[in-house]
Amino acid sequence: MLRPLFQRPALAAALLAASVLAAPAQAAELRSADIHPDDYPTVMAVRHMADLVKERSGGKLTIKVYAGSALGNENDSIEQVKLGALAMARVSSAAMHNICEVSRVPSLPFLFRSKEHLHKVLDGEIGQEMLRACEKAGFVGLAWYDSGSRSMYTRNKPVKTVADTKGMKIRVQQSDLSVAMVEAIGGNATPMPIGEVYTALKTGLVDAAENNFPSYESAHHYEVAKYFSMTEHSMTPEILVFSKRQWDRLSEADQKLLRQAAQESVPYMRKLWDQREDKSRALVEKAGAQVVEVDKASFQAAVQPVYKRFVTTPQMQDLVKRIQAVQ
Fold first, then answer.
1. Would residue 119 count as lying in a domain?
2. Which of 32, 33, 128, 304 could make an S-S bridge to 71, C-beta 3.0–4.6 Å?
3. What is the pLDDT of residues 74-85, one digit of tens each?
């Protein structure tokens, strides 16, 4: 759930200063947020989108990207987008789970069989349907970005089977579904923002975390958790969301321009992602991280109760069946 604004005085002040209700049509600049650093594929992809928008609008619309958590963590960005103080944000779809329940579907463990399966689903009608589902919550979904496959990494011992995770304190994203997945494999889930994970691993507050190779590398988690076990349990995609409040004040022509530019940024992002993933894996292995193969079947069997708990509506059940049927 989003925290009430009155409980967050610093953000409240920032929002007031930003003139929450200012119409974007009157201001040339649309602001976009990302927690990742400047050279991260998602940041570079939104900047590519910004170049297309500026060129095609003749400078009428511009997008300024604030990277590196300059405007707060993902929950802060989501709250600002909902209120209309921020035009856009690139966030993990896991950060939307408690706001837009359909966003849980692409985060389900072992739902996608491969990167090719993921792309075919997200690029088709199913992907567009899931983007549209968040509008009633105040968010216009513009595009899906890759986030690779998420795997487990640990401080003290490698994980090879689901039995190895029993009793482990494992950092997860701030999502009920992520918590339930870790509980299903016998771990003790510890939700926290990514910015706190390095210290938590270093001090032993958590025994493990789970993420993709680029995040493992860029956040320097490999320095304090040297065993990277290839569970590949989730391919939770990133989502680029736009404020419904600001969107409704744009002309249809500007809306069309933004949608098109966002979609055109997707293949650009995927190319950068593939390059970054290979580079990150090579860097962490060179630094001494051990990449460990695992018994995936043991994990797949353990997480089946997560589907029963979270696929709770006919729409979600239908989406899961259709995704699994995509060849």
1. yes
2. 33
3. 999 999 999 999
